[in-house]
Specification:
Layout (H helix, E strand, L loop, with lengths): L14 E2 L1 E7 L2 E7 L2 E5 L4 E7 L3 H9 L1 E6 L5 H7 L15 E3 L6 E3 L4 E13 L2 E13 L4 E4 L2 E4 L2 H4 L3 E2 L5 E2 L22
Bound molecules: flavin mononucleotide.
């Protein structure tokens, strides 16, 4: 495959778009965020990278906690709006209802089918970024998307959640077809047992 250098572009796509929430001066606020990732399942760790100047960042620093809310495709207009206006100028709580989580200062967006409560364990400053490494404390999933599998609670297939994906072409995308299953798709590479 012939490749062309395009410069230092962190093209790891698609990027799931989330709404990061925190109470700021007692008022819930949410920012649209692409720079959010899972750092581990056990223990459950996440990372969120926010600009130091965001209104939301002030709330996260004050409470050392935040929520990650997974919006759905039908919310794309609101999500885009929350990515261009600041809670400093617009009361976002009027546009997105929320309820308090278990952790103080953490609002859970009522219209998002998944809300994850996170407690900050360390903050890394890189230039204008505040990078929050956090423990997941509790995960709230819309009850119609929760399945029971052998006594264990799990979440419905991704296609039923309709998350918003983003790419560095500036486009918002929906989820495509399922193309494989973990721990199964690679089995064709395992040589057959000669016995
Ligand atoms: C698609 C998209 C992705 C974004 N991702 C991030 C991000 O990862 N980190 C960040 O700090 N800002 C990100 N932003 C910008 C913030 O959402 C935006 O500056 C917002 O107005 C901040 O709101 P606040 O001041 O109320 O916190 C993104 C915006 C859009 C439209």
């Amino acid at each position: 495959m012939r490749k062309t250098k395009i410069g230092a572009v962190p093209y790891v796509a698609p990027i799931p778009i989330v709404l990061v929430g925190a109470d700021v001066d007692g008022r819930p606020n949410f920012a649209t965020v692409g720079d959010c990732a899972v750092l581990g399942i056990r223990p459950p760790l996440v990372v969120v990278s926010l600009s130091a100047t965001h209104h939301t960042t002030r709330g996260v620093l004050a409470h050392r906690a935040f929520s990650i809310n997974v919006p759905t495709e039908s919310m794309v207009a609101l999500v885009d709006h929350f990515g261009v206006v600041s809670g400093r100028d617009v009361d976002k709580a009027l546009l997105l209802p929320s309820e308090p989580g278990e952790v103080e200062g953490v609002p859970l967006a009522a219209d998002c089918p998944i809300s994850i409560e996170c407690r900050v364990r360390s903050v890394v400053d890189v230039e204008h970024r505040r990078i929050f490494i956090a423990n997941v404390v509790q995960t709230h999933v819309a009850s119609n998307l929760v399945r029971e599998d052998g006594g264990r609670l799990c979440v419905a297939p991704l296609a039923e959640i309709h998350p918003i994906l983003y790419a560095l072409d500036g486009g918002y995308y929906g989820v495509g077809a399922k193309i494989g299953t973990s721990h199964e798709s690679g089995r064709s590479f395992i040589p057959a047992d000669p016995r």
